Every structure is written in C-alpha cells, then in structure tokens.
Amino acid sequence: NRRIVLARRPVGAPVASDMRLEEVALPAIGDGQLLLKTLFLSLDPYMRGRMSEDRSYSPPIALGDPIVGRTISRVAESRNRDYAVGDVVMANSGWQTHFVSDGTALRKLDMQHPSLALGVLGSAGFAAYIGLLEIGKPKPGETVAVAAATGGVGATVVQLARLRGAHTIAIAGGADKVAYARDVLRADVALDHRAPDFAAQLKAAAPNGIDVYFENVGGDVLHAVVPLLNDRARIPICGVIAWYNLTEAPAGPDFSPSLVRTILRRRALMEGFVVSDWLHKQEQFFADMTKWIDDGAIVYREHVVDGFENAPAAFIGLLDGKNFGKVVVKVAD
Ligand code: NDP
C-alpha cells in the first residue's frame, strides 16, 4: 500500500516536502470488512484547510496521517455481504492506494464514467447546484458573476446561471480559460481576473450591476464585485481560495468596512454553505444533473493527473490555478 501523509503543516502555500510518500504493508481484512483499491483520488481546495491546525468545519489532519480525500475505489477483497469483489464505490480512503473499510460511508456506483461522481455529479457539481439555486436564486435577466469559472464548481455555476436565463459573467485566469468559458460554457461575458484593468472590465460587463455573486475565490475579484452589487444582491459563499494560503492579513487598506457597509446599504445577503449540510437535496441533484448532462445542457471538463505519486504537485498547482477543470488523480485502471 502506498500512501501520502502530512509530513509538516504548510506555512503559506504548501510545498512538496509538506507531504511524504510512504510504503506500508497491506492490512488483512477482518469479518465485515472490505479491502478497497483506489482507482481515482479527488483533489480539492478544502484539503489545504485540513492541513492547518485552525478550527474549520472539520478537524485537522494529524501529522503523519494520510491526507484526507474522496476516492472512487474497487472492492478487491470482501468479507462483507453487502459488497462483492469488483463493485465500484465512492469512499473516503484518503491519499492511499488501498484502504480497509468496514462497509460504512460507502456509495455503490453504477456509472460508465465513475470519476464524475467526484466532480460534476459529486461535491463540485452539488456545491454549484445548492449555492446557485438554493441561495443565489437568480431570476431571468438578472446578472450573475462567478470566478474560478472553468473549475469543478464554477463551470457548473456558469451553465446553471445561463440555463436560468441570467446574464452570466464568467471570471477566470488566463486566455485559454477565458475562451473556454465564453465558447464552451457559453457565458455571456468572460473576463481574465489577472488583467490590470479587470475591475473596469467587470464594471463594463455589468451595466445593470450584479444580483448574484457566487463566491469561490475572495481576494481581488471580491473587491471588484462589491461596488457593483445591486439592492437585494445574494452572495453564496462557497470558498475563498485566494486566501487559503494567507499567513497574515492581506497588504493594503482594511476592506471590511466598505464590504459590511455595502451589505447594509444594499440589504444584501451573504451566506456561507457547505454541501454536507444539504444531503436531503442530494438525490434530486443527482437526478437533475444526470438529465442535464445526458441532454447536453451541462458539459464538464476533468483535469486528469496520471499516477498517485503526482498528487502533491497537482494539489499545489490546484491552489495556484494550474488546473483546468475538476482535478482527479488516476491511481489505477
Ligand atoms: P477549481 O477547480 O475551481 O480550482 C481552483 C481555481 O481557483 C483555480 O484553478 C483558479 O482558477 C482559482 N484561483 C486560485 N487562486 C485564485 C485567486 N487568487 N484569485 C482568483 N482565482 C483563483 O476548484 P473547485 O471547483 O474544487 O473549488 C472552487 C471553490 O469552491 C473553492 O474555493 C473550494 O474551496 C470551494 N468548494 C466549496 C464547497 C462547499 O461545500 N462549500 C464544495 C466544493 C468546493 P483561475 O485560474 O481561473 O483563476
């Protein structure tokens, strides 16, 4: 069994030596247990938070423990009557090639393309669905803005906003991602947040202001959005990846007074959400999203990294915008 453990808590952006690849003996399974072999490992920005000691909505990873993560796994041995050898399941094996499970917290998958259960049909798509449709609630003709617009969550937000008839502004990093957001995801406008005049471009793209800002990133994008918010704007807070590696308050003037005053004056709603609180909507999500994918209404893009040992570099790249689509590591066939 190969596993990647947390060797050291990262300070700022994680570096390769914060993680360590180890080889350990394969455990024998007991009664009721299963041996799972990892096929795909999901890499997600929340893992950065779990590497730190700070309190978040889940506990930190202990030093020396495998990094947490969702996997798509195949049952390699079974002493559990609910699972047979060969079954494909979604599991929480973490960053390891094998995992002994007691059969709880698994979901059997019967899909042509099971890695989608980590992306557009998994937490990423579900976050887009809940954040946009349950909190953002865009109406036809309203303006929706979203950054990290070609990523796992953002690409689905763009397409759902467009399906709801909103004027959709996609924000992404670099010319290739901007072109993809415009031409494939079919955003009404696509902008590069790295452009020096990004704030002016955003203002020009939102002549009627912004009604829904789906927050994936924080940082400079949020700064540019706040002056454009309309009365009764809704801001679902899904993530703030621009700030995950912060070690001290960002340089420059304190932005919080202008943010909070705008929320007050505009009677705006900012609401943080975590998909695990919305499990009662999961079946509906799965049915809706499967239909939209089958109809071609929603397209998806995976960023597949080949080889378990490449997970640390891919994770570091994900926090820095090097990915183009939902990141999954292909661990085995
Ligand atoms: P993505 O596939 O979107 O990858 C992250 C992207 O963030 C990068 O590709 C980059 O895109 C963008 N980014 C990184 N740094 C910055 C920055 N400083 N300014 C602007 N953009 C930046 O990841 P996910 O789709 O997995 O996650 C998106 C967000 O959703 C994250 O914040 C994540 O934590 C959150 N999330 C929350 C969930 C919840 O339940 N609340 C569930 C799942 C995800 P680009 O190159 O285009 O800038």
From TrEMBL:
Pfam families: ADH_N_2 (PF16884), ADH_zinc_N (PF00107)
Gene Ontology molecular function terms on file: oxidoreductase activity, acting on the CH-CH group of donors, NAD or NADP as acceptor
Keyword Zinc-finger recorded: no
Coiled-coil ranges (or none): none
Keywords associated with the record: Oxidoreductase
InterPro entries: ADH-like_C, ADH_N_2, ER, GroES-like_sf, MDR_fam, NAD(P)-bd_dom_sf
Residue ranges of domain Enoyl reductase (ER) in the record: 16-329
SMART domains from the UniProt entry: PKS_ER
Protein name per the record: NADP-dependent oxidoreductase
